[in-house]
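Hi R.,

Here's the input for the S-adenosylmethionine complex you asked about:
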Amino acid sequence: MKSLDVKIYMEAGLGRSAAGEIPLGRSVTPRGLSYMHSAPTWDPQQYLHHSVHRTRPFLDLLIRIPELPNEAGTARIADIGCGPGNVTALLAERWPTAHIIGYDLSPEMLERAERDHAGPTAGGGLLDFRPADAGTWTPQEPYDLIVSNAALQWVPAHADSFAGWIDGLVPGGTFAFQVPGNFTAPSHALLGDLCDSPRWRTRLGTHGRRYVHILDPADYLVRFEDLGCAADTWETTYVQLLTGEDPVLDWVKGTALRPVLTELADDPEAASDFLAQYADLLRKAYPPGPHGTVFPFRRIFAVARKAV
Ligand SMILES: C[S@@+](CC[C@H](N)C(=O)[O-])C[C@H]1O[C@@H](n2cnc3c(N)ncnc32)[C@H](O)[C@@H]1O
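And here is the predicted structure with S-adenosylmethionine in place:
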């Protein structure tokens, strides 16, 4: 956190509770939250451009989650890094009577989730969204399921939280997550290299690789087995066909480019220069074909069931 950020953060009264939740009574405005440790600004609209491709891995994860201990009653579910809430809402389709809480650090994402999905669910359950930092969040009540989709790559040392999160599950409860595993793919390697090039290094430093905090599926498996869980981990490369002009650039504008776009937000000319250079590199790495642009995307999955 930059010292100016710390000052504004403290003055805004945005301290986290011991559980990593950001107190609801505070003035949790988009402006206030955006100062916190220079977290990138998210754009739910941009992120949702590719919602069909982005939702598929979550559906594949969901299929592997076993029956919950309170399957037919009021199961409690936490979705860490819930984003705009569209995948959180899918949890309510599978567990219609559950009380589901989506946690996220981005005020923009939380606003969208609140607007589109918060409230009682058709099956008598409840969807609720709250600010929290996954880096410090700990369960304050027993959960049947803790889930996270495409978010933990943004959380350094997230695997160190696993013991506390498994502790917070009821016996037989599940922790399940999915993270991208494509950080050596051209889309991401080129972004890191460009940020590190002489033209951008001083300004963008490590912003091109801010999200790279993942382990291999085998490492996740060992961690969960060590914690006494029955673990199931795997990886899948989705061969995605994207359409439109510069579709890979459009994809990363919703995710990996957020730190760069946030850093250059007050300098549209620099942002436009950067995007032009990056678009050029991406066009060469992912040339459009007769049916569209093929964009392979590796993802890593883990499902860990606590002993009964
Ligand atoms: C790629 S989006 C995924 C959103 C949603 N889970 C989905 O699958 O559509 C990543 C989300 O992680 C959130 N995030 C990043 N770092 C976080 C942190 N430290 N604590 C909580 N949320 C975080 C971002 O704000 C963003 O909404």
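One thing worth noting: The first helix runs from residue 3 to 11.

Cheers,
M.
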